[in-house]
Amino acid sequence: MLSLFTLEQGRASEFGFYNFALKAYERNKRDGGGEMNDSGEHGEKKKSRRPSQERTAQRDPERTRAAILEAATREFAENGMGGARVDAIAERAGTNKRMLYHYFGDKEQLYLRVLEEAYVGIRTAERALHIGDRSPEEGIGELALFTWRYFLQHPEFLSLLGTENLHRARWLRQSVRLKELHSHLIGELTDVLEQGKKQGVFIETADPLHVYLTIASLGYFYLSNQYTLSTIFGRDLIEPTHLNAWEKHIVHVTLTSIKR
Q1: 87-144 tens-digit pLDDT
Q2: Rounded CA gap, 219 and 216, in Å?
Q3: Quick check: is 26 in a domain?
Q4: Last residue of a domain, one of 85, 105, 125
Q5: Which residues form the HTH tetR-type domain (predicted)?
Q6: SS3 category, 6
Q7: One domain, residues 7 and 117
Q8: With b meaning 16 or more CB within 10 Å and e meaning fewer, what string describes 158-182?
Q9: What is the DSSP letter of 46?
């Protein structure tokens, strides 16, 4: 079983998980906005790009696109669609607004691309699980574990989901890529559940969408409300012992809800 925490992640409770994880995420990505100071803010800004640097970006368009997407993911996750600034994205990516508009059109198109790539990331990782190659119980349990751990490791994904839900999926509805991505997930879940029903392991009414909503909601609600819940109940929910206990709870609740 994979460990939930690296040595560095074990310090999460000191900062609050989201602040800590977002800083770790930033350190692992190419960021054109200068060094981070102790408060998590950017220090001295980089100078404007010289023409020779722009020519380099034009000669390596894939690298430039990737840098812009990484910077945009960070900016939208931190500030939402309304608060994110194109200037800040270009600076983080080490490029300029002209190149950003050249590759992505405008801020709204860039935001939609960030959303799509966020979903591509989790759906691609889910496919690699091959839950259909396991026993039905193991397959569902593995999906539950994976989803929880993915949420822990990708707080920017949860932040983007929160932003898009505030806008009632205004931009997500414009995507032509997402239906195909999610149809594979539901298809694989359906196959696993049907196999479990044939073996007499799962109840006949087990529904693939309900199963996934159970898994996702148990993880999303816990992490999205960690600060208020920790304050109200006087328990630091991001302590490793509590996270590990909740992980087991997610698997238990998910399987119990569909087992005979």
Answers
A1: 999 999 999 999 999 999 999 999 999 999 999 999 999 999 999 999 999 999 999 9
A2: 5
A3: no
A4: 105
A5: 62-122
A6: coil
A7: yes
A8: bbbbebbeeeeeebbeeeeebeebe
A9: P
Tens digit of each residue's pLDDT (9 = 90 or more) over 13-32: 333 344 444 444 444 444 44
- If one counts every other C-beta atom within 10 angstroms of the C-beta of residue 30, the result is 13
In the block, which residue shows the tokens 């799962």?
A: 202
Residue 158 φ then ψ, to 5°: -65, -40
Cα distance between residue 123 and residue 182, in whole Å: 7
What is the count of structural domains for the chain?
Answer: 2
Please name the helix (run of DSSP H) or strand (run of DSSP E) that holds residue 256, with its range, or none: helix 240-256
How far apart are the C-alpha atoms of 188 and 194, rounded to whole Å?
Answer: 10
Residue type, 192: V
* 8 phi, psi to nearest 5 deg: -70, -40
pTM above 0.90, yes or no: no
Query: By C-alpha distance, which of 43, 68, 46, 47 is closest to 57?
Result: 68
- Residue pLDDT, tens place only, 204-230: 999 999 999 999 999 999 999 999 999
Whole-angstrom distance, CA of residue 97 vs CA of residue 89: 8
Q: In this structure, which amino acid lies at residue 90?
A: A
